[in-house]
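User: Fold this; tokens only.

Assistant: Input:
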Amino acid sequence: MTLPVVPRLPRTRAAVGRLLIRRALDRLPLQVRMGPGELLGRGGPAMAVYDPAAFERRITAEGLIGFGESYLAGEWDARDPVAVLTVMAGHVAGLVPAPLQRLRGLWAARHPDTDRNTPDGSRTNIRRHYDLSNELFAEFLDPTMTYSSAVFRALPAGPGQLADAQRRKIDMLLDMAAVGPDTRLLEIGTGWGELAIRAAARGARVVTLTLSREQRELAMKRIAEAGLTDRVDVRLCDYREATGRYDAIVSVEMIEAVGAEYWPVYFAALDRLAAPGARVALQAITMPHERMPATKDTHTWIHKYIFPGGMLPSVRVVQDMARRHTRLRVERCEGYGAHYAQTLRLWRERFAERAERVEALGFDETFRRMWTFYLAYCEAGFASGYLDVHQILLTAPDGGTS
């Protein structure tokens, strides 16, 4: 993959950016070596900036997008990037001076219109990530091919515990939704089929929706190998186009791909598809509600390189959307962000161990650095408490329309 070139900046802007960046770094609990000699920071995890001029120009031009691009370009590195990024995540609100924060709308990059989650846009956004290669994901996921937070019996967790922890997470959601024999279950976001397989093994009749052709192909193969094809219907279908009424609806870390613009549409769809008395179990990555006004319109490194069109809700958003757009009501909400940090650590370590195999699949060094940064970036978000993950139960009234 090809990175943007180092931007050229007017001399005054470059000088101001250099001053602000060095001032911010010098106040952080880090050890930042700028080039061969200068040391910034108050002590802590170490990072080395090999090309300070390029590093500073990228950040001045693109903010945190530039910070991530500088890592992809090898202009800075760290023995423990998660530790460095955890410090950054814990101090994110203070990295930009208050006067510039108030002018964020003038300097922060905005989401491009091409990333909007229209029906066509959603298909494009999903394919850009999930259709990269089933083989790529298999290199770092466990045998269940589950790409969402696990729930471990105890922390810290070892790699041998991951598959069981993923099954435990799935069973918690299926129990929350009361899925059993002959339950009519709708899954929004198939992944590679593990939840559908476990639900069908309980005797449920499952309709599962995906926009990824690669995922659908492998999910159908895995379902067939489990002997459950007669109980699972895997549809290449947008949630907005879904039909039917279901006793239970489960959606695991799919709401993040909906986009704030379409949250009302998503919740209205849940309401329309839920039969009277239905139970809806969502797993969602969440962010603090107070951070949303500052970030909801900002185009970030994650949007540009990993999840175009994505937006994390807060728990309050889920509650508000359910109240305003549905008959559904939130009954339970359980968070376990520390388990996601452990899940991401295990994925990141496995990805590093399989670097040569990933290269053999055709993914170059820049891509591998991008993926390493992505996994470390997310792990740091959960380790710092900036991000969380929740399982949320919503219920439909028994007397709803049919």
